[in-house]
Amino acid sequence: MKLDPVQRTILNLLQKDSTLSTQVLSERVGMSATPCWRRVREMEEAGVIRGYVALVDRHKVGLGTCVWVRVKLKRHGADVLERFEREVKGCEQVVECYEVLGETDCLLKLYLPNLEALSVFMHDFLLKIPEIDVTHSAVALREIKNETALPL
């Protein structure tokens, strides 16, 4: 879906505050409520807007440790990747997972309460997946930038 300038403005506003009413949104965009609502609805139906969420401060809910784990798989068959993906998708500590090019095959992002939880995650979950050959972890010392809004 190609976005027009009004749709981009709507998306930028919703990315900052998805609780805006259609009335407020339409005023900020400079159009009446019904056409504005239609624009939002079109983007929802097209999958441009996938949903609405509450952004939670991870530190305030006890998830102060951010860890990136690079994973190298033993083999690269479709069945191996499917099994690995199934395991990772079912693990709540993994908040992001990417298949990547380079020395490793996948990159996982975890939010955990502490380093002890990382040890438990590695021993009780990740290292029990038979498709994994090697892992490398990097613990974030501090968060410099973490944005959810896409640059439109």
Automatic annotation (TrEMBL):
Q: Where is the signal peptide?
A: none
Record SUPFAM superfamilies: Dimeric alpha+beta barrel, Winged helix' DNA-binding domain
Query: Would you tell me the Gene Ontology cellular component terms?
Result: cytosol
The GO annotation for biological process reads: regulation of DNA-templated transcription; response to amino acid
Xref: InterPro entries? ArsR-like_HTH (IPR011991), AsnC-type_HTH_dom (IPR000485), Dimeric_a/b-barrel (IPR011008), Tscrpt_reg_AsnC-like (IPR019888), Tscrpt_reg_AsnC/Lrp_C (IPR019887), WH-like_DNA-bd_sf (IPR036388), WH_DNA-bd_sf (IPR036390)
Q: Where is the HTH asnC-type domain?
A: 3-64
Tell me which Gene3D superfamilies the record gives: 3.30.70.920, Winged helix-like DNA-binding domain superfamily/Winged helix DNA-binding domain
Q: What is this protein called?
A: HTH asnC-type domain-containing protein
